[in-house]
Amino acid sequence: MHPQIIEKQPFVIIGFTSRHTMPDVKFTHNIPLYWETINMESAAPLTRLHCVFSRSRHCEYTLCFDTDLVTSTFTYLLGVGVDSKEELAQREQDMYEMKMPGGLYAKFTTPPVSSEKYPQSVRDTWKSILEDWLPRSEYLFDEKRNDFEYYDERDHPWEHNNITQMDIYIPIKKRKSK
C-alpha cells in the first residue's frame, strides 16, 4: 500500500443522514459498504443531490459520525461535495450539512476491479490500511477527525468497461518520537 499523504483543505458535504445500530461501529472503516447490508436506496437521493448541486464537481462521500458505543448506534451520511457558497445556499431543509475540517490525510485508492468484485475490493483495502499500513507507518489515526470514502466517475462501471475504483481517506497525525 502506497497512499498519497496530502494536506486537505476544509470542505463541505451535503447529503442525507440515517441513524443505525450495528455492534462495534466507531468509524467508517467498521462498516465498509454499509449500504449493502441495509439495502439502502442510494440512486434517488444522489440524483436529487446532483441536480440541486449541479455546478459542483461530481463526487459522492460516505462517512459515519455521532457514534454511541453504549447503544451501538451511529449516523451514516451519504452526500456530495459542494464547492461554492452560491450552491451551499441551495441546501434544502431535509439535507444535512457536514463541515469537514482540513488536515493531513492518507489517501488510498482501491485497485481497479470489475463491479462484481468492487465491494470486496473496498473491504480488502480497508483491512490492509488498518491491519498492515497504519500499524507500520509513521502515522496514527487522528480520532478528532472523520475518515471517509470518496466516489467519483471511476465508480461508474458503465463508463469504464465494468471497471470500478474509489478512494479512502484516513485522517492521520505523526507518531510522537520516543
Please write out the topology.
Elements: E1 4-8, E2 11-21, H1 34-38, H2 43-52, E3 60-68, E4 73-82, H3 85-88, E5 96-100, E6 103-109, E7 113-114, H4 118-136, E8 139-141, E9 148-151, E10 163-164, E11 167-174
Antiparallel strand pairs: 1-6, 2-4, 2-5, 3-4, 3-9, 6-11, 7-10, 8-11, 9-11
What does this protein structure show overall?
By secondary structure, the protein is an alpha+beta fold. The chain has one domain (4-174): Regulatory factor, effector binding domain (Multidrug-efflux Transporter 1 Regulator Bmrr, Chain A). It is 21% helix and 37% strand. A hairpin with a 4-residue loop joins strand 3 (60-68) and strand 4. The model has no long low-confidence stretch (mean pLDDT 87).
N-C termini distance: 25 Å
* CATH C-level: Alpha Beta
- Strand tally is 11
- Rg, nearest Å: 16 Å
**What would you give as the CATH superfamily?**
Regulatory factor, effector binding domain
Structural class: alpha+beta
The unreliable regions are none
